[in-house]
Structure formats: C-alpha cells, structure tokens
Design brief:
By secondary structure, this protein is of the alpha/beta class. The protein contains 18 helices and 7 strands.
C-alpha cells in the first residue's frame, strides 16, 4: 500500500472532509490523471487530491499551519526558559537554601509531566486518538479557528484535517517535540539561573527533615546522585559528606560541592532525558511524516474508489453509463483538422511521446523538431490543416537554453496553426541533478513562452506533479481536444 508524506495526507484528508460535507468536487482532469498514473487506491487518491483545481490554495493553508506549528514550538521554548528561570529564582530567594526542597521544587513537576507523557503516548497508540466528547469539541474549535487564521475557502476543513493529524504517529511525535522542547528549555533556564546566582552570591546549602530519619535522607541523596555520578557530572558522594550537610556547609569547598550537586541533579534528571527524547521525537516524527496511511474505509474514500479504478476509464466501451463529469475526456471525437498539434523540441529522453501527459485527449503528433527538416515538416503539416487547430503543445527540454531560433519556430508554428501555444518544460530533474540553475532556467523559458504568445507548464515526466498535469489537462480539454 502506498505511504503518503504528511503534506499529501493533509491534502487528501482536507478534500475528504470537504466532499463529505458539500459533495464531490467536479474535476474530470484530476480523475483522468489519477487513473492514468496508476498505483494502488491511496496513491490514486493522493494524485487526484493534488490535481484538483483548489489544491494550490489548500496546500498553501497547510504550509501556513506547519509554519505556525514551528513558531508555536519556538514561543513555548522561550516561555519554558522564562518559567524555569523564575522557578529557580524562587527556590533561592533566601540565602539559606534547602537542597532537598530546591531539588523537589525544580524536578518534581517536570518528572510528573514526563510520566504523564509516557502514559498519553501509550494510550494514544492503542486507541488511535480520541473520538469522544473532548475530541468533538476540539474539532469544532479548530473549524471555528480555521477561517480566522487561513485564507482559502476551505480553511475550516483544512484546520480540521490538521487536527485529525494529531491522532496519527506524525502528530503524536510532533506534539512530543513541542512538549520535550518546553521542558528542556525549562530545565536549561533553571540551570542557567542557579549557575549565575551561585557564581556571584554566597548561599548556605543544607538539608533537614521532620518525619524521615537521617539515614533515609542519606539513602535518598545517594540514589539521586547515582545517575549524575555515572555521567561524570559530580564525583562520588559519601555518606559522611551527606550527613555533614544536615547542619549546613560551613566552608567554601563544601558549599561549592552542594551547589554542584544541585546543578548536576537538574542536568542529569531534567535536561539530558528531555534532550534525548526531543531528538528521538524529531527522528520518529520525520519518519512517520514520510509513511502516513490513509484510512480508505472512510465513506468519502469509498465513494471515490470506483471512479478511481483504472478500468473506469474504459467504462464506455463496456456499455456502462458514467456521470457527465467522468465521461467528458472520452465523450467527443474531432477530426484531425480540429485536433491538438504536439511537437517535441530537443528532448534528451528517448520516449518523446506527449500523449502520456494528457490521457484521454487526442493529439496530432508532429514528431521531433530538432533540426531544420523536422521543423519544416511540422510547419508544413500545420499549414495543411483545413481549420484552425485547437492548440499547439510543444514539449521542450529544460536542459536546453532557450534561444531565438526555438522562439521563432514555436511562434510561427502557433501562428500557422492559428491556435494557442502551450509549452511543456520537461527534464527539469535532470538539469537539477547536473547542478544547473533550475530557477534561472525556468524564468528564461517562462519569458520565451510569453514572448511567443503562449503559456508554460513545468512537468518533469520522471517525477510529474499532479497539479501541473491537471492544469494542462484542463486547459487542453477546454479547447475542445477531447478524444
């Protein structure tokens, strides 16, 4: 089964929610491209969603939400620094500091929150997210918030899809990144504050107990010190040194050793575990974000399954009636004189057949136009048409620098055919692999298309984007080029 990245999953889920709420989005080009690209059902759902006309606006909303999530993580990390600094300052408000009380004040809440995180992750992985009253209320809140943060007409459904992603592996690990980032920042803020104040102010560090015996406290301190000792943050603590702290450390060396003990507690028990969990969460969220699964048993996807079946494109030949939106690419046949002329210009790939770009649309293939003879033959064929062509489709290579000769040929071909010109710029991936300046080359070809009176689409047939394929398919369908 196809695994989707998080952006494709969010696009597909957004359109599922939209279509379950307001009905199917009519777009024959998206269906034709999804069927033509093949793959299993999740892969075809992804291709169709990316090829829908509203897809760019939805993807822009998704980009905004992901940026907002990054800013939220940064803001919470800054807040964690401030809260940690304030908590540390509160524990040393007096010159005499109780070491056990300070340790408990700074480590107890983060430790409890760590236990709560472990429980939440275990429950979340078993239950797959909450669908109860709280989940319903949260989803309603997200739908209300969507139009106030985003710009597309479908912002409420995009926000709801983003909320639904929180129940996936990617969502849980991404939220874990934010959680661990906050508490690590809290511990860093506390450690930095204590270090600064211990460096410039003299504190008397001691410990005392009312209910526990001294022996119990000594064992507790020895247990707390075991992990920092193994990390090398402090030297091995002795029972007599701990007992001496019962009445306070009188000399500077003992005070410094107790101060280092408190700092080591924070570094070993708060900062290091959170840092490791933060890195683990980042790695797992990145992995999960590349391996998302669609729940294809949902009603919105089930209704799409039949229409996205590759066999559905041949339904007319089997005598099965189809809805009008699905039959449009295969409905009418036109004479070659009214067809779409297709020509390939200086492509490196051996397969220059442009028909795979626009499934269901009839093309008049003029062949290769790499030299004077090929271009002359293409112009001659265009000139013999009894009626204007529906369009001229020129497939050009991004590996080639656009020149005046190519521009004159394309402009003349469109003028001879009396038809709009569409440039398909192929082999962009090969240019990028060779270290070429892809942005500059795109700009040059775009400028050539405008000068020649045409439009350009950038479709690398090694890795075509569904949105660009659909844009070309829709444009050529509107010209009357259905087969």
């Amino acid at each position: 089964m196809s695994r989707l990245n998080v952006n494709d999953w969010l696009v597909a889920e957004s359109f599922r929610r939209i279509e379950e709420r307001v009905g199917r989005q009519p777009d024959a080009a998206a269906l034709a491209i999804a069927r033509d690209r093949g793959g299993d059902l999740p892969g075809r759902i992804r291709t169709r969603a990316n090829a829908l006309e509203q897809s760019p606006a939805v993807r822009e909303d998704i980009r905004r939400l992901r940026r907002a999530l990054g800013w939220l993580a940064l803001v919470l990390a800054m807040l964690g620094l401030l809260v940690g600094a304030a908590a540390a300052r509160a524990t040393i408000a007096e010159r005499q500091v109780d070491v056990l009380l300070a340790t408990a004040a700074l480590l107890l809440v983060p430790s409890l929150m760590l236990v709560a995180w472990v429980i939440a992750m275990l429950l979340g992985s078993r239950r797959g997210g909450s669908r109860g009253l709280a989940g319903t209320a949260a989803m309603a809140g997200l739908r209300w918030l969507g139009p106030r943060l985003l710009s597309s007409p479908h912002s409420a459904d995009v926000m709801a899809a983003f909320g639904g992603a929180a129940a996936t592996g990617w969502g849980r690990w991404r939220l874990s990144v934010i959680t661990h980032g906050f508490w690590m920042a809290y511990a860093v803020g506390a450690l930095a504050t204590l270090f600064v104040f211990f460096s410039v102010v003299q504190y008397d560090l001691t410990w005392g107990t009312t209910l526990l015996s001294d022996r119990s406290v000594i064992r507790l301190v020895e247990w707390l010190a075991w992990w920092p000792e193994r990390l090398g943050f402090i030297s091995e603590v002795r029972a007599d040194w701990i007992a001496a702290g019962r009445e306070g450390a009188a000399d500077a060396a003992a005070r410094a050793q107790w101060a280092r003990f408190l700092l080591a507690m924070i570094a070993a028990w708060a900062i290091l575990p959170r840092a490791l969990l933060l890195l683990l969460s980042l790695a797992l969220s990145a992995f999960a974000g590349r391996h998302m699964d669609l729940e294809t048993t949902r009603p919105g996807y089930l209704r799409l399954a039949a229409d996205l079946s590759p066999a559905r494109g041949d339904a007319e030949t089997a005598g099965r009636p189809l809805p009008e939106a699905d039959r449009r690419p295969m409905r009418r046949r036109r004479a070659h004189a009214e067809g779409i002329l297709a020509v390939a210009v200086e492509l490196e790939r051996e397969d220059s057949d442009p028909a795979s770009l626009v499934p269901g649309i009839e093309l008049i293939d003029l062949g290769l136009a790499d030299d004077r003879a090929g271009r002359g033959a293409a112009l001659e064929t265009a000139g013999r048409l009894h009626k204007p062509a529906a369009a001229v489709l020129a497939v050009c290579s991004m590996l080639r620098t656009p020149d005046a000769g190519t521009e004159r040929f394309l402009a003349r071909l469109a003028e001879t055919a009396d038809a709009p010109l569409w440039l398909v710029l192929d082999e962009g991936g090969r240019l990028e692999a060779r270290g070429g300046d892809i942005a500059s080359r795109r700009h040059d070809w775009q400028a050539l298309a405008e000068r020649a009176g045409g439009q350009a689409v950038f479709i690398d047939r090694d890795a075509p984007e569904a949105a660009e394929l659909a844009r070309l398919h829709r444009a050529l369908s509107e010209t009357g080029g259905e087969a």
